[in-house]
Amino acid sequence: MRTTGWAACIALAFVALASCSHGTQTKTQPAASATASPAATAAATAPVITPRPAPSGRPTEAAAPRLTHPVPRVAPDAAPQILAIAVSETTVRPGDRVSGSVVTSSNVASVEARIGGYAMSMSKTGVGRFALTYTVAPLPWFVRGNFTLQVIARNARGDAATRAIPLTVR
User: Fold this and answer.
1) Cα–chain-centroid distance for residue 149?
2) Domain CATH number, residue 12
3) Cα–Cα distance between 124 and 10 in angstroms, integer?
4) What's the chain's average pLDDT?
5) Which helix (H) or strand (E) holds 44?
C-alpha cells in the first residue's frame, strides 16, 4: 500500500512536469561545431529575438518566433545541425501559451522538445524549419522550480543533435 502511494505521487509528478515542457524565452542558440559552415557562423552572430509583451506585461497569444537564418543544404547522411532556436519565454506558469521555432540543416527529418520522460514533436514548416505552440496545463503546487528543456534534431538515419534550454516553472 505504501509503495503504491509513492508510485502514484511519482507518476503524478512526471505528468505534471510533462505538461510544462514547452515554454521558454525568446533567444537564439547557435550550433557548436568545430567545422562551422558560413550558415552556422551567421547563426552565431544573429541578434537575439525578444517577445512582445501584452499591455499587462504577459504575452496573450504567442506566435512562433520567426528566425531568418539560412538553411544549409547538406547530404542526407551528414550529421544533423541545430542552427538556431527561438522560444517565447523561459519562465512559464499554468495557462501560458508558449511557442518556439528551430532552424536546422536541410537533412533533419524531425525535431522534438523533451523534458524528463515527456517529449513532443515539432511540426515541420519547411526545409530545416520547425515550429511548436503549446499551452501549459494546470500544474500541482509541488511542480515548481528550474528544469532543462532538451531540443533534439534527428536525421533520417537517426543521428541526433541536442541543445539544452533552461526553464523555470512558477
Assistant:
1) 6
2) 2.60.40.10
3) 33
4) 73
5) helix 38-44
Domain that includes residue 25, residue range: 2-169
What was the pLDDT predicted at 109? 96
Residue 2 has pLDDT above 60, yes or no: no
Helix H or strand E segment including 169 = strand 160-169
Instruction: Give the Cα separation of 67 and 56 in Å (integer).
Output: 26
Q: How far apart are CA 74 and CA 134, in angstroms?
A: 30
Cβ of 81: how many Cβ atoms within 10 Å? 26
Order of strands across the sheet that contains 160-169 = 91-92, 160-169, 145-155, 108-115, 118-121
Residue 137: count of CB within 10 angstroms of its CB: 12
The stretch 119-144 carries a mean pLDDT of 92
pTM: 0.64
Q: What is the pLDDT of residues 148-159, one digit of tens each?
A: 999 999 999 999
Taking alpha carbons only, the member of 149, 147, 150 closest to residue 169 is 147
71, pLDDT greater than 80:
yes
Please answer whether residues 83 and 30 qualify as being in contact, where contact means their C-beta atoms are separated by less than 8 angstroms.
yes
Q: How many domains does the chain have?
A: 1
Q: What is the pLDDT of residue 166?
A: 94
CA dihedral sign, ordered 90, 96, 101, 107: positive
